[in-house]
Amino acid sequence: MTMAVIDLGDVSDSPAGPDDYPDGGRRRKIDRAAAGRWIRGVIAAVAVLALGGSGQPGPPVLHQVWSTPFSDMDAMTVLGGSVFLYRSVPGGESELTAHDLATGTTRWSRRTPGDPIWMTTLPRAGVLLLPTGEELVERQLPDGGYLSYVHSGRLTALDPVTGEQLWEHDGMQTGEETGDSLLLFERAENGRLTTLRLIGTRTGAILWERAAPPLAENVAVLSEAGVPSRVVTASNEGELTMSAFSDGRPQSSGRVPWTPVSAASGEGSQLTTAGGRILVITNGSQQSEVTAYHPDDLRRLWSRVMPGWTYAETCGPLICLGASGNFTSAVDPATGEQRWDFLGNSFNGIPVGEGRLLMSTGDTIPSQAILHVATGRQIGPSVPGYVTFRDRGTGSLMLLRGLYPDPERNAVSRLDPATGRTITFGAIRVTQGRFCDGADRYLACLDSGRLVITAVG
Fold first, then answer.
1. Ramachandran class of 13: left when φ > 0, alpha when ψ lies in -120 to 50, beta otherwise
2. DSSP 8-state secondary structure symbol assigned to residue 44
3. Into how many domains does the chain fold?
4. C-beta neighbour count of 157 within 10 angstroms
5. Which residues of 313-333 are buried (b: 16+ CB within 10 A; e: fewer)?
6. Does any domain span residue 54?
7. Is 101 exposed, middle or buried (0-12, 13-18, 19+ CB in 10 A)?
8. Is 274 among the domain residues?
9. 28 DSSP 8-state letter
10. For residue 397, how many other CB atoms are within 10 A of its CB?
11. Contact assessment for residue 245 and residue 231, using Cβ atoms and an 8 Å cutoff
């Protein structure tokens, strides 16, 4: 049984009641001391019952379990029951340390060359990825602008449990985790792709390695029925090449309408995939055009115009087209026919269960909504707050919501995506952009130069 304290404010000067109240429109005067004794007695009785008759108060719902210094230049991520801190140390090196999320106990630590840039996790395979040796290159374009991109670099994969190095390869990761394999690519200094390489996610074994198609600068992985099937590349002239994901062999190619990206404005075409279709999105400041092509023969299937900058992603059986201004249109992958619209942006980065979709609404004060993917019908009310992480065990989402007038005070709540119901636990302090991560019942948040771990419940 859980008890909540509700702040009712100052009620010492209660207003007069309506004229039809007894005693001439005035509420009967209450003996405050007697009322206070009565209320305290009821609360004590309920508390004893809630605690099984022990009479002892329970632990706070939110409580800090440990903390450690943490700066704006450091990196942090959570995987399983560990939190990984990637920090600069004297001597031009970085130190990566794994701590037990619940206790703060150090599990392992290792040094790496250079400054910490970022790190990422591959939860399905149980791998921690670190980049090293990346170089930023700026290239002047014909329109006078400059295009900045990262080339070279090397990826190191670690076992998150032991810190042992699993493999090391030149290149960068493309797309999201695809199960037991990972596609890497390398670039030349002029920005063009040079090498494509498919490796085993845990072993690092090279499954295939091929030279990228001539003049290719963009690469994406096409999945069909949730399984990677093709590697798609595009040149800056719109030359598309499809290769088999399994062995890298080229299958077909062709040219589609393409607008080179302007470094001055950022407008132009980009390659992506969603819903088993190859998509070319030509972004503009006022509107964007999304064109879908069949992966077998590059046959043009449909085209849609969206307001402002647009992105696309797979939303169950549909494709979600998200536009600036918090607007999402869900369309049929085969025809482009609109199925539903929603004033919000889809958040596929955090899955919420089969047939359901997480949508984020609002700009300055965001809220979260759970939708049925096929119909766009909302499940439960919208819930204010930012999503920090998804509990893999229960599927619930942990949310933070800034409390006026102190933006660093944040309410902590849990949203059940199956029912749309929410439980609020209390409030914690979070600084540095409300950045938090977590797992199970633990929140890892930044607060005034420290990483603070809070237990929920």
1. beta
2. H
3. 1
4. 23
5. bbbbebbbbbbbebbbbbbeb
6. yes
7. buried
8. no
9. P
10. 24
11. yes
SS3 272: strand
Query: Which range marks the domain in which residue 6 is found?
Result: 1-58
pLDDT higher than threshold 80 for residue 58: no
Mean pLDDT of 353-382: 87
pLDDT at 376: 94
Confidence of residue 258 (pLDDT cuts 50, 70, 90): very high
Phi, psi of 249 (to 5 degrees): -75, 130
For residue 405, whether the previous peptide bond is cis, meaning omega lies within 30 degrees of 0, is yes
The one-letter code for the residue type at 406 is D
Taking residue 160's Cβ as centre, other Cβ atoms within 10 Å add up to 22
59 preceded by a cis bond (ω within 30 of 0): no
Q: What was the pLDDT predicted at 6?
A: 29
Instruction: Give domain status of residue 311, yes or no.
Output: no
Query: Is residue 45 over pLDDT 50?
Result: no
End-to-end CA distance of the chain: 12
Closest CA to 448 of 411, 409, 403: 409
Reported as type and span, the H/E element at residue 25 is helix 22-25
**What six digits make up the tokens of 228?**
């990677």
Query: At 50, phi and psi to the nearest 5?
Result: -65, -30
In a domain, 23, yes or no: yes
Q: Which tokens belong to 107?
A: 């599990």
**If phi over 0 gives left and psi between -120 and 50 gives alpha, with beta otherwise, what is residue 26?**
beta
SS3 32: helix
Positive or negative, the CA dihedral 407, 410, 411, 415 is positive
Burial class (CB in 10 A: 0-12, 13-18, 19+), 158: buried
Output the six-digit token pair for 319: 């494709």
Chain centre to alpha carbon of residue 428 = 21
Q: Could you tell me if 138 and 146 are in contact, meaning their C-beta atoms sit under 8 angstroms apart? A: yes
Closest to 320 in 3D by CA, of 332, 334, 305, 308: 332
Mean pLDDT of the chain: 82
b/e sequence 10-46, b meaning 16+ C-beta within 10 Å: eeeeeeeeeeeeeeeeeeeeeeeeeeeeeeeeeeeee
Give the per-residue pLDDT at 366: 84
- CA 3-6-7 angle, to 5 degrees, is 150
pTM of the full predicted structure?
0.80
Q: Residue 313 carries which side chain, given as an amino acid letter?
A: E
DSSP state of 398: E
Q: Tokens in use for 65?
A: 């379990």
